[in-house]
Amino acid sequence: MSALPESLRTALELAAIGVPVLPLRAGKAPFGNCRSCAGNACGGRPNMKSAGPCRCPGVCHAWAAATTDPDVLTSPAWRAAWCRAVTVAYHPGAAGVTVVDLDDAAAVDWARETLPATRIVETTRGEHWVYRGAMSSHNAVRPGVDLKSAMAYARWLGPGTGTMTALPDAVRALAVKAPPAVRLAPHSVAVPVRSGNGECCHRVPAYLDRGIAMAEERIAEARSAVHATVYRTFLAVLSTHGRCGCLTDAHMTRLFTAAQAKGESARHCADAWTNARIALGM
Questions:
Q1: What does residue 234 show for φ and ψ, rounded to 5 degrees?
Q2: Are 259 and 221 in contact, with CB atoms under 8 Å apart?
Q3: By CB distance 3.0 to 4.6 Å, which of 7, 156, 186, 258 could disulfide with 216?
Q4: For the segment 157-174, what is each residue's pLDDT rounded down to a tens digit?
Q5: pLDDT band at 50 (very low <50, low <70, confident <90, very high)
Q6: Which of 231, 229, 237, 232 shows the shortest CA–CA distance to 213?
Q7: Pairwise CA distance, residues 44 & 14, whole Å
């Protein structure tokens, strides 16, 4: 028997620890569907952890082809694909993780300032931050940032460094889309600020002040999708700082002022704040 391709050896090692894998061809893309599976004529592969239910022996259906079955991985059709593969990919959602794909240095800087530390894998241009826990996948949640988990694939670039931590609300919040906004004339709206009496994590006042300043910068830097940016920013602020009741009217005023400087109405700011609190169960 010929020696196993290096990509297949890596795939088998990952499959042995429960990580569903698949090969990627040139261009870092999955192999295309065979004729029998074209247009999902076979019914597709909805089971996230196996290569079924279709009877196709090939590497079809992109992320849904990912498997931990060594018999599938070493079958003739798959071995042929591994010989042509340029890298190994895996299905994060089925492995129980979420990958925050940071595509450039600016995105990495944002993550270091915004997200809790976790396992980090270096990529060609940026980093993958890997958290324990699955969620839905979303592309372009902010400049240079994609979320890869359920129904998606990510390249395997090594185990990375650091300790994997639980998926934080700040990452989940990135996937929440802002509801359509109704433009009304600016007017004063009373919105509750204090959101709870949980344990305070703000060891020094500068921690909260820094978070508010970063939120102001994020809103100010928005060049498009301002509605969504404002909502996601409010959501991120509340998920990180809102449960202990430290947010004050002054903090909210700073955020609303930043949003209104980008053309948002007072009413839209109030609606976005309220909707963010509802989304987080506050």
A1: -60, -40
A2: no
A3: 258
A4: 999 999 999 999 999 988
A5: very low
A6: 237
A7: 24
Q: Is 199 exposed, middle or buried (0-12, 13-18, 19+ CB in 10 A)?
A: exposed
Q: What is the DSSP string of the chain?
A: -PPPPHHHHHHHHHHHTT--EEEEETTTEEPPP-GGGGGGTT-----TTSS-SS---S--SGGGG-B--HHHHTSHHHHHHHHH-SEEEE-TTTTTEEEEEE-SHHHHHHHHHHSPP-EEEE-SSSEEEEEES--B-EEEEETTEEEEBBB--EE-----BS---BPPHHHHHHTPPPPPP---------------------SSHHHHHHHHHHHHHHHHT--S-HHHHHHHHHHHHHHHHTTTT---HHHHHHHHHHHHHTT--HHHHHHHHHHHHHHTT-
**Separation CA 110–CA 112 (nearest Å):** 6
Please name the residue that has the structure tokens 């931590």.
Answer: 165
pLDDT at position 192 is 52
Instruction: Label residues 71-82 b or e (16+ Cβ within 10 Å = b).
Output: ebbebeebeebb
Task: Give backbone dihedrals phi and psi of 13, rounded to 5 degrees, phi first.
Answer: -65, -40
What are the backbone dihedrals phi and psi of residue 6, each rounded to the nearest 5 degrees, phi first? -55, -40
Total residues found in the chain within this entry = 282
pTM score, two decimals?
A: 0.63
Q: How many CA atoms, within 13 angstroms, populate the side-chain half-sphere of residue 126?
A: 22
**Residues in a beta bridge with 21:** 67, 90
Nearest-angstrom CA–CA distance, 79 and 273: 53
Which amino acid is residue 17, in one-letter code? I
